[in-house]
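Format is sequence with structure; example below:
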Amino acid sequence: MKSGRLFNKVAVVAGGASGIGEATCRAFAREGLVGLVIADINRKAGEALAKEIAAPGCPVTFERIDAANEADWSQLAPRVFERYGRVDILVNCAGIGGPLVRPTVENTEEDAWDRTFAVNAKGALFGMKHFIPVMRSCGGGSIVNVSSVYAIVGPRFATSYAASKGACRALSRTAAIQYAAENIRVNTVLPGYVNTPMTRDIHNQPEVRQQRLAETPMGRFAEPEEIALGLLYLASDEASFVTGAELVIDGGMTAR
């Protein structure tokens, strides 16, 4: 008999083809879903993952979207609803980190700023904008947006990235208030330093790696699976009275 923490639910994971998003898809697929949609710009990785984690009773499909493109979202939401008849969970995990050399405020270029905000902040906005009406028609749902510990602490560099994740954090709290009465919960996960494809090149720089490890009291980087478990909790009915919350998973970094 099928069961699980996400029993009988349908989930959409934006940015689900790699990193934290991939780990989230893997965790969700084991928890009783009746449908999972991996939405990502990387078709090859997304289709391979969908094929790998699909299971009897839980079809997994891939949809190519550019999270920064509102037209992609506006077309995705009705397609998913038509296919599954409902959407219970939306995870906004699509994100970009910027160049290896991350400039300070006075050296930040407008184009770089706009590209980062387009994915990290506008992507979360567009996802919620187009899936909230679907959730409303289904009687409610759970949205989990992935921000960053840099939305809490100021980094020495990563100007555009930190600002965009701060915007995502504020947007999540705003949406939580606006839709709480409609049984649509909106929460945020704020990871610290994580080993992902996006951070690999940065963490391969010895000076940066040592600095980041020194900033993390547990003395190591998180694995994507450790972040995904936090998303699983917030997506599930175990968090039925949780909205507007911020789950920090950072190895103690912000406790200093």
Observations:
- The radius of gyration is 17 Å.
- The chain has one domain: 10-250.
- The first helix runs from residue 19 to 29.
- Strands lie at 10-14, 35-40, 60-64, 89-92, 141-146, 184-191, 246-249.
